[in-house]
Amino acid sequence: MANYQVHESAIVDAGAQIGEGSRIWHFVHVCSQAKIGKGVSLGQNVFVGNRVEIGDNCKIQNNVSVYDNVYLEDDVFCGPSMVFTNVYNPRSQIERKAEYRDTRVRRGATLGANCTIVCGVTIGECAFVGAGALVNKDVPDYALVVGVPARHIGWMSEFGEQLDLPLAGDAETQCPRSGDIYRLSQGRVVKVTEA
Asked: Residue 102 in contact with residue 154, Cβ under 8 Å?
């Protein structure tokens, strides 16, 4: 007996690996070679391709298609109707399945509602992509990016709060909600202590 929940309208192809405690809601389709971790929530009308890996505790909201060559680490949030791609220059009349580009979303990242992630990029750990943004290049760890195309406007804590740090230079600050300390140095942010 499955140790995860599947709505009766969902289709889970034989062979899919699904972790304990995951929830698969209305009209979801999970392909046979997909690997889904523990405690994952797949909202209504989600599609998960074959060459996809989804880590533990990910939340994928309604109307998201996770196509082949997309890899999500643990604790990733995909907002409603956000978009992944896997072909950089698609044409209907040209077969490009051998040209899929990998997209990697690191632990704890948030992808806001209706954002678009162009294939071949890496979204850094605990990065935050604003709603409606178009990401066409790598996003650093803890970075906040917004707009079309997405531009770096700030830094975010693991708690999901904007940090009082400049975009460049050397500085240190505290998350206003958790009290954790973050340090900016050489263009990178790291968490240095927990409250």
From this structure: no
pLDDT, residue 107, reads 98
- Are 37 and 54 contacting, i.e. CB atoms less than 8 angstroms apart? yes
The predicted-structure confidence for 28-61, as pLDDT tens digits, reads as follows 999 999 999 999 999 999 999 999 999 999 999 9
Is pTM beyond 0.85? Reply is: yes
- Contact call for residues 109 and 128 (beta carbons, < 8 A): yes
Spell out the CATH class of 5-163.
mainly beta
Cβ burial 136-153 (10 Å sphere, 16+ → b, else e): eeebbbbbbbbeeebebe
Instruction: Please name the residue that has the structure tokens 């979303």.
Output: 105
Question: Nearest-CA neighbor of 157 among 174, 140, 170?
Answer: 174
Collapsed DSSP state (helix, strand, coil) of residue 35: strand
Q: Which amino acid is at 160?
A: G
Greatest C-alpha distance within the chain = 56
Name all contacts of 13-16 with Cβ < 8 Å and 24+ positions apart.
Answer: 16/48
CA angle 77, 45, 24 (to 5 degrees): 70
